[in-house]
């Protein structure tokens, strides 16, 4: 029988083996796991996290087997633990970003962690199984995004983690639970009916829920499929007149996954991930690096950073409504504001966790700088994480112009964070919640993931 | 903003605004939905979700309709009951198209059971919240011309149903305006499931999830979670689910014009997609012309072919369905069942009936035609059934408005008959009476948890 796209995905999920993972893929995915955990740990100190946790604890108590980031002793039911940890991961917009655009790890890791705690001791997955399932979750997300050219640019309609993230979580969990091919297909089908959140909630407190729900609902879809729930077996295929997964795109061209028995090329092999250096939308990282470079020029020119000498600050950025905010008032808005991040970088010489506190956001000096900002959208600056650039120009009262431009920020996949930088980020994040020995233990565990016999230790 | 306007209305509507007609119609909807849900608890899909939901149990809990043996947390009770309501595609349908009650009633009932002892919810509170949930759905559906026709991309209950559930729960929780707004915003991030899962076992989950997620959104909003305050205004908000989206503010609260007043729902007489109800009525009447008395069998050998003139609706066009879910979404199947049996009922979709040789034979002779004037809208579609006999004669009939449609609503006795038939599969006779009485007198009920 002719193979459908959906069945090719189901076969892939079911049949792929650890041997298919290449060295690069292993290494990259372990970096992602470490970063994701760190980001989740620091995220467990946020207000949105508190709300999500309180909500889950009030409504559910028993069969609580799964842990919550940063709260030793607290346990929740598996899907709710996944939800809470997913919210933590995305709470500060500090988690990884891929190309085409989505936040892949946060949608997958929490579900896998919760699921591995859920399984009985006799069938606990080992580190290799875990790593494989994680990569299945990433791969499915990447492949789905390649079905639409719309996915290559910064999104406008649906927030990608809520679309492909849910599917990735379903795939990863299905893999970890060793579901049959048919069950894998149904997991994808059920997950599609749980996918899709509009962009409008980005830059609000509700955005972290997108990742929380992606990981939770994908997990639920797999659990339901495991119990025999059936969905449309052609959910990924293009059926005119009755939309399946294609409902989320206006242009949709699905392709089957190849499942040759010995070799599968994972997308992560060819396309690495970007790790953020500070907790804000990825686009901010370009303007910040550009701002830092022009700041140096300015200091050389004037001896110190003297805002009074500046007449205007011109930002040359791509056109994207939800990250263009001249005067953000909340931390969520600030994380999604080119203007805010550029000015913070100019003022402080860095952007970090504390740049987004209430007092930092409302500083008088910052407001004054924001007043001087002018935004331009050059035609060659495409709203695409692979191609965009950021340029910051200081127009001084004296008539001089100083410019800084950034094509590839440090942390982008073209200029990946070094191992030391990644560990530094992790240690800084985790230290908000854990003592030093614990932090080092986690680092070692993830680094040696393949040799772990029981992944629920993680 | 429109979002703020919605929040104000949700917050500001009170029992005095309910008109008699709205009260009467909504009580009919509640009764029908309960019956359909009770029946639905016996389905396979419902068993699966119940098993699944049992993973979670806690101190705060709500009941599964018809089952007193265990309780679930409110969210999962809402989910399971919502699945039950839509499990057989037997629940109400509105215009513009959605299944309004299933997304709202399970959520408000579950929520009302979860309130602490000291704070009782009256029947009137429940009725009001229910209507807020229905009203919000209807208003949202009017924001896009796409919504007037039978859907193609997103299944409407998952889009507007989630929002309606959030609104209804926000009302029941008596959230302030700001929290009502946030409930809507958060709910939007849960909304939207593609149509492809219609006619599969997953479809009932659409209504279950709408109820559950709307409730969750309201609970999160109640705890202070915030979303986009212009969620209804922006194209990248609820507008993301439509290609043309024109939101409008709601009317003022002064003598509020409820949509349910102007536009009633359709109640189904048998558990299948609404479009098939026209087909069933036309086919039954053709059968009467072919067969002298209802005891006689349909003369299959004499039939050359059967032509159904229906609107073009891909997901209800199934020449040979193999599962009950597919059968419920098949013009052809329902037409042939009606021709063979004279009427369509719950039993028509049982496994053995789906695979009957006589039915299969008749299905092979059945074709669809899509006249250009037959628009895929529940307001205007029609169905014509023509049976051509081997001797050359043709017997046909046409149905413009089936019995149960809003233009020809079910009489009180027939609505009750449907409820009794459904509920009796799970409840004892005295309970049946009790529920019916309670729903009819809902406004006077002091503590709606008696329901």
UniProtKB/TrEMBL annotation, chain A:
It catalyses: cis-aconitate + H(+) = itaconate + CO2. GO terms for cellular component: mitochondrion. Keywords: Antimicrobial, Immunity, Inflammatory response, Innate immunity, Lyase, Mitochondrion. GO terms for biological process: inflammatory response; innate immune response; positive regulation of antimicrobial humoral response; tolerance induction to lipopolysaccharide. GO terms for molecular function: aconitate decarboxylase activity; protein homodimerization activity. Its EC number is 4.1.1.6. InterPro entries: MmgE/PrpD_sf, MmgE/PrpD_sf_1, MmgE/PrpD_sf_2, MmgE_PrpD, MmgE_PrpD_C, MmgE_PrpD_N. It holds the Pfam family MmgE_PrpD_C. It is found in: Mitochondrion. Residues 278-450 form the MmgE/PrpD C-terminal domain. Residues 8-250 form the MmgE/PrpD N-terminal domain. Its main location: mitochondrion. Homodimer. Belongs to the PrpD family. Cis-aconitate decarboxylase that catalyzes production of itaconate and is involved in the inhibition of the inflammatory response. Acts as a negative regulator of the Toll-like receptors (TLRs)-mediated inflammatory innate response by stimulating the tumor necrosis factor alpha-induced protein TNFAIP3 expression via reactive oxygen species (ROS) in LPS-tolerized macrophages. This is Cis-aconitate decarboxylase.
TrEMBL record, chain B:
One of its GO terms (biological process) is inflammatory response. Residues 270-431 form the MmgE/PrpD C-terminal domain. SUPFAM superfamilies: 2-methylcitrate dehydratase PrpD (SSF103378). GO terms for cellular component: mitochondrion. It catalyses: cis-aconitate + H(+) = itaconate + CO2. Keywords: Antimicrobial, Immunity, Inflammatory response, Innate immunity, Lyase, Mitochondrion. Coiled coil: none annotated. It is found in: Mitochondrion. One of its GO terms (molecular function) is protein homodimerization activity. Its EC number is 4.1.1.6. Homodimer. Cis-aconitate decarboxylase that catalyzes production of itaconate and is involved in the inhibition of the inflammatory response. Acts as a negative regulator of the Toll-like receptors (TLRs)-mediated inflammatory innate response by stimulating the tumor necrosis factor alpha-induced protein TNFAIP3 expression via reactive oxygen species (ROS) in LPS-tolerized macrophages. Belongs to the PrpD family. This is Cis-aconitate decarboxylase. It comes from Opisthocomus hoazin (Hoatzin).
């Amino acid at each position: 029988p002719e193979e459908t796209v959906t069945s090719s995905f189901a076969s892939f999920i079911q049949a792929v083996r650890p041997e298919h993972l290449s060295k690069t893929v292993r290494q990259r995915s372990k970096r992602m796991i470490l970063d994701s955990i760190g980001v989740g740990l620091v995220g467990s100190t946020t207000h949105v996290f508190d709300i999500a946790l309180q909500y889950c604890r009030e409504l559910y108590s028993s069969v609580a087997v799964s842990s919550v980031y940063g709260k030793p002793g607290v346990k929740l039911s598996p899907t709710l633990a996944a939800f809470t940890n997913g919210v933590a991961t995305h709470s500060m917009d500090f988690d990884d970003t891929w190309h085409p655009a989505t936040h892949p790890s946060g949608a997958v890791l929490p579900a896998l962690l919760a699921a591995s705690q859920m399984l009985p001791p006799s069938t606990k997955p080992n580190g290799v199984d875990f790593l494989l399932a994680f990569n299945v979750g990433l791969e499915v997300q990447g492949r789905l995004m390649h079905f639409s050219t719309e996915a290559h640019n910064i999104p406008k309609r649906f927030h990608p983690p809520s679309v492909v993230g849910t599917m990735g979580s379903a795939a990863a969990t299905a893999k970890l639970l060793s579901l049959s091919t048919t069950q894998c297909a149904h997991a994808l089908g059920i997950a599609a009916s749980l996918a899709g959140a509009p962009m409008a909630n980005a830059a609000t407190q509700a955005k972290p829920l997108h990742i929380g729900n992606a990981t939770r609902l994908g997990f639920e879809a797999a659990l339901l499929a495991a119990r025999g729930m059936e969905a449309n077996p052609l959910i990924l295929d293009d059926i005119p007149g009755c939309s399946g997964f294609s409902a989320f795109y206006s242009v949709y061209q699905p392709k089957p996954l190849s499942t040759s028995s010995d070799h599968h090329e994972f997308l992560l092999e060819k396309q690495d991930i970007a790790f953020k250096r500070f907790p804000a939308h990825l686009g901010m990282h370009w303007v910040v690096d550009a701002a830092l470079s022009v700041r140096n020029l300015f200091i050389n020119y004037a001896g110190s950073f003297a805002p009074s000498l500046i007449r205007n600050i011109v930002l040359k950025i791509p056109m994207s409504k939800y990250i263009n905010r001249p005067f953000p008032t909340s931390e969520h808005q600030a994380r999604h504001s080119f203007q805010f991040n550029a000015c913070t970088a100019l003022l402080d010489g860095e952007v970090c966790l504390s740049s987004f506190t209430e007092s930092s956001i409302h500083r008088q000096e910052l407001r004054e700088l924001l007043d001087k900002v002018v935004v331009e959208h050059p035609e060659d600056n495409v709203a695409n994480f692979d191609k965009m650039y950021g340029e910051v120009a200081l127009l001084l009262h004296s008539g001089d112009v100083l410019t800084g431009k950034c094509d590839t920020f440090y942390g982008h996949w073209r200029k990946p964070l070094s191992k030391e930088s990644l560990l530094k980020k992790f240690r800084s994040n985790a230290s908000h919640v854990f003592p030093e020995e614990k932090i080092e233990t986690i680092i070692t565990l993830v680094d040696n993931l393949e040799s772990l016999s029981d992944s629920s230790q993680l | 903003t429109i979002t703020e306007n919605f929040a104000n209305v949700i917050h500001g509507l009170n029992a005095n605004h309910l008109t008699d007609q709205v009260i009467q119609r909504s009580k009919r909807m509640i009764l029908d939905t309960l019956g359909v849900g009770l029946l639905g608890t016996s389905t396979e899909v419902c068993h699966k979700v119940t098993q699944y939901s049992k993973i979670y149990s806690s101190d705060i809990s709500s009941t599964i309709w018809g089952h007193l043996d265990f309780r679930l947390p409110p969210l999962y009770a809402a989910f399971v009951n919502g699945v039950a309501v839509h499990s057989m595609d037997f629940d109400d349908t509105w215009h513009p198209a959605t299944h309004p009650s299933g997304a709202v009633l399970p959520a408000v009932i579950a929520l009302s059971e979860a309130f602490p002892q000291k704070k009782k919810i009256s029947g009137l509170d429940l009725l009001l919240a229910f209507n807020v949930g229905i009203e919000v759905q209807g208003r949202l559906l009017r924001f896009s011309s796409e919504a007037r026709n039978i859907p193609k991309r997103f299944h409407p209950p998952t889009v507007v149903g989630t929002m309606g559930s959030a609104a209804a729960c926000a009302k029941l929780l008596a959230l302030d305006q700001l929290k009502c707004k946030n409930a809507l915003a958060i709910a939007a991030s849960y909304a939207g499931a593609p149509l492809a899962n219609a006619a599969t076992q997953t479809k009932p989950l659409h209504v279950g999830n709408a109820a559950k997620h709307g409730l969750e959104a309201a609970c999160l909003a109640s705890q202070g979670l915030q979303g986009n305050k212009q969620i209804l205004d922006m194209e990248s908000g609820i507008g993301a689910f439509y290609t043309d989206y024109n939101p409008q503010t709601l009317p003022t609260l002064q003598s509020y014009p409820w949509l349910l007043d102007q536009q009633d729902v359709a109640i189904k007489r048998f558990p299948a997609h609404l479009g098939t109800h026209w087909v069933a009525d036309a086919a039954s009447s053709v059968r009467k012309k072919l067969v002298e008395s209802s005891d006689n069998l349909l003369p299959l050998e004499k039939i050359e072919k059967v032509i159904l003139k229906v609107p073009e609706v891909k997901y209800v066009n199934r020449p040979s369905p193999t599962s009950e879910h597919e059968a419920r979404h098949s013009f052809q199947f329902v037409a042939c069942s009606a021709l063979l049996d004279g009427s369509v009922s719950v039993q028509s979709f049982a496994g053995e009936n789906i695979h009957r040789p006589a039915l299969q034979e008749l299905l092979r002779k059945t074709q669809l035609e899509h006249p250009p004037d037959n628009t895929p809208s529940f307001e205007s579609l029609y169905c014509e059934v023509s049976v051509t006999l081997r001797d050359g004669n043709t017997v046909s009939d046409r149905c413009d408005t089936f019995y149960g449609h809003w233009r020809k609503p079910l009489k009180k006795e027939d609505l009750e008959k449907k409820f009794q038939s459904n509920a009796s599969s799970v409840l004892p006779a005295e309970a049946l009476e009790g529920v019916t009485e309670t729903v009819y007198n809902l406004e006077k009920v002091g503590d709606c948890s008696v329901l």
